[in-house]
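Researcher: Here's a chain I'd like modeled. Treat it as a single chain, no partners, no ligands.
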Amino acid sequence: MPRFAHRFRWLLVVACLSTLLAGCGWRLQGTSKLSTVMATTYVETDDRYTDFNRALRDSLRASGARLTSHRDEATAVVKIIKDESGQRVLTVSGRNTPEEYEVFYSIEYSVAGRTEELIPPQKVELTRDYSYDETAVLAKQKEQAILREALARDLAGLVVRRLASL
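Model: Modeled as a single isolated chain. Structure tokens:
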């Protein structure tokens, strides 16, 4: 009997915590619910295969939007005006070799409904820096790629949270 009582208490504690978390509005990041305006979304872009574009589509789907490949079916159009990433040298050694780089990802987007502009063009840029070691070139190239993908996911999250406020 004590074993059953212990399990019951544990189940009761888990149920109470779940109810408290659900009641306070807490949600996992990236699960913002979109309004009905964004129910069927068309993403207009020049390059469908960028890190940001993939991350944005994944975030929109996770938030409940249905993505369409036909603009005329959409209740909202997210237009990606600019989508670029790269790196800049931050610091240089006394031998004139790079010691630190900054990876950046910059986007510009706007959102239109069926009849009106919902969000005028917005520019967003995120950056991260990393140290460079010329003896580990391949590892640093991989680090740069990982940082760029993380920046794209962060930007997509920012955009979807902005869309959730419509």
